[in-house]
Description:
single chain, about 375 residues, alpha+beta, Aminopeptidase, Alpha-Beta Plaits, 2 domains, four-stranded antiparallel sheet, about 30% helix, binds zinc ion
Amino acid sequence: MNTIDYNELQKIIEINSWTGNKEGVDQTGTLFASWMEALGMKCIRHERVHVGDHLHFVSPKKEGKKLLLLGHMDTVFPPETFELFREEEAWIYGPGVCDMKGGNHVALQALRMIHHRHGEICNIDLLLVSDEETGSDDSKALSAELAPSYDYCMVFEAAGSKGEIVTGRKGAGTFFIEITGKAAHAGNHYSDGADANLEAAIKLQKLVTLTDLEKQTTVNVGKIEGGLGANTISPEAKLVFELRYTDKGERDRVLEAIDQIVHTSYVTGTSATLSGGIQRDVMQPSEAQADWIARINTLCDTTLPTEQRGGVSDANFIAAAGTIVTDGWGAFGDGDHTVYERASKQSFDERIALVTEIFEHHIAGRL
Ligand SMILES: [Zn+2]
């Protein structure tokens, strides 16, 4: 049985909502708002000039725990790169169908079920942001500001292949080291130069040595630039690198070491500056989170599979604010960020049914 209204999903997927397309993201938001307002949810619009508006849908509050649902409206596809919607027996194809317009739709359908049964929704709000795919640079402050008002947060990124929800996500940061040396003719004045490229090469080796695979900490210097030509001692070099980690202790260890590597000149006469930083801090599994999942398992007579992921999402910001958060409540799909993106119809049905049940237990005060 398919409970989902694929017509609506099609409509919202066919609107291009690449993060850079503010008009398209806002159109997506306006359409979604019309569905949410029909459920008695009030739409608080956080207007933005350069990115799409963020929308906070708020339900009446009663005594009891407060639940925030979180999604993003933007996709990674600029206009005319991937705009089709296609439905097959078992799969739906389209931009955002699993990442994550499909997930937003799971939340919407489950809210509708609740509204249908009770005539109202309370203690559950939904935040849809417009800029997740470019790092949530604008919305992260809003997510962090709203998070403490809620006891729990469910993020509707795609489920794992066996219906896993996500209990942990790595933290991630991007950094830039700019190295200044001194140019000199490589033939005539070799000793007068200070080789920025050599300094970059040494720094690169020291940086990647900070990787600790056992602890799932990785440092990757993904880009290196430097120098003018074969006959000149290089006056400038630049390293671009990324840090990912699963543990705050590891974050601090690596940050300290990075600082030391930046401020040590291994090649005399060179100097370096560091920019960039942590973008999304780690989302670590917690006891309170495990308790909440255990209550769901008991109440819904299920055993929810869980997983930790290397990739980051807005769940990282919610976790950093101290609110109990889980992710992966959307339908299962694959091919995200490619033109093969698809989501499983069966998984839509399963997720909507499960999430509806969780909402029931939540508003009844059992969670
Ligand atoms: Zn994505």
